[in-house]
Write a structure and sequence with these properties.
Number of strands of chain B: 12
Largest sheet of chain B: 10 strands, antiparallel
Helix content of chain A: over 70%
Number of helices of chain B: 3
Mean pLDDT of chain A: 87
Shape of chain A: elongated
Helix content of chain B: 10-25%
Low-confidence stretches of chain B: 11-20
Structural class of chain A: mainly alpha
Oligomer: heterodimer
Shape of chain B: globular
Number of domains of chain A: 1
Largest interface: A-B, 41 and 46 residues
Amino acid sequence: MIRILQAEIIKAFARPRSYIGMGSIIALVALIDVSFYFTGEEYIGLLFQSFDQVFSLEGTIINGNLITFIILQTLIIQLPLLVALVTGDLISGESAMGTLRYALTKPISRFKFITYKWITAMLYVLAILILLGIFAYLLSLAIFGPGDLLVLNADGLVVIRDSELFWRFMASFIFAFISLTTVASLSLMFSAFSDNSVGPIVLTMVVIIVFTVISSFEMSFFDPLMPFLFTNHMHLWRRLFSDPIATNEIIQSAGVLILHTAAFFGITQYHFHRKDIFQ
Amino acid sequence: MRQLIISAFIMAFSLHAIGQDANAILNNVRSKFANVNDIRCNVEMKFDIPGVAIDKISGKMIYKKPDKFRVRTKGLIFLPKQNPFSQLEILDDPTDYMAVPAGTAVSNGINCNIINVIPTNGGELVLMKLLIGIEDGRIHESELTLKREGTVQYFNTYASAEDFIPTIMEFKADFKRFKMPKAISGDFNSKPVREEEGQSKYETGRVKMTISNLELNRKVDDSEFVDEDS
């Protein structure tokens, strides 16, 4: 069984598209680091105009922790798209290439087959996040050094002391893993329903983009919809950087995301179990 | 007619005498500050700024005449744009302002003379209102109206009767309420705050500095005001 899982992992990581996401992360992190190194002060000045009249903010504002936070905030919207690029193709890709029937000739139940695909998707998510952790956190700290984090919210600022930040970043990476797991499970579910590689990827991207755009609207009309958009719960990692930490909200959102993952996984199993692979 | 001239003369003389009184009060403050060239102390800073969540922090505060001021901490801090000794710096040259008495008031339980300081040299300051203790001749409260920053206030508390440098300096100022679109802040989960009609766009922020281990006139070098990374 382990050999089948190994084979799935090798298949997923052997394809060039698996490295598009990783390459994009490295390129984006490098770009953000370089731009902040040269023009970070301008950006910060622009954000704090309303306080600037009477207060001056003293200390090292641009530091590794702030850059990591900005990278996380920027990429957390893009990462699901990069994940879907790989996980959306895990089942439908095999179906399109005609290897699905061959794969199922092995003495393995359909339940295990999907479970291994799902584990492979989770490992890809983990690989992306470890890469992000190394490049965003460690590289930014190496370039800009440590310091207090200034978190910009819609209605104010939160200053978090340096000593408090390591565990918050680690927790936010764990939360990002839970979020991306949901996206990976969604795209895997679409993948089980489709026989071409592009459809599930595009569909996942559309769902995420539409949900995110609705989340960003500041109109009361959309307020009742918000709790039902799983993308809205994905942004809750930011609450780890609030003061006091909104523990209940975070746990609740993590729970909602895990429930979504379980539902997507269940639907995938149910559908694949009945799927006519000979068509 | 003669009565009118006499009345005018008496009034002018009285105003001159009152003005002289105000100048005498300020001279007293100025002479005390003249003995202070360098200040070095520990400082604990507490912030009460609407829309800003920031813990208190401790650090070192240094001051050097004529106007160099710095607080060094291990983290980020909000500081008033005007250094807390700017009220005393303004009084340094009596030819730069006109002192006008404006009655008396009680500040933090202390009876004070109110002196309005009107600058005569242009510059950033429009008006400075000082509440100076009648008994102790120390500044207990000041209100500076500045061209760009608007009105800022300082409230001073002294630990003992002999101190001239306050133990607690509380800065208070109004600033425009912080608001950032979700798309820029990335804070998609915040509940939208809808402004009520007639609600002020301004909020009042406070920074409290508590001083300890004060050392007066222990030389502060110019290099101590330069950023280490510059």
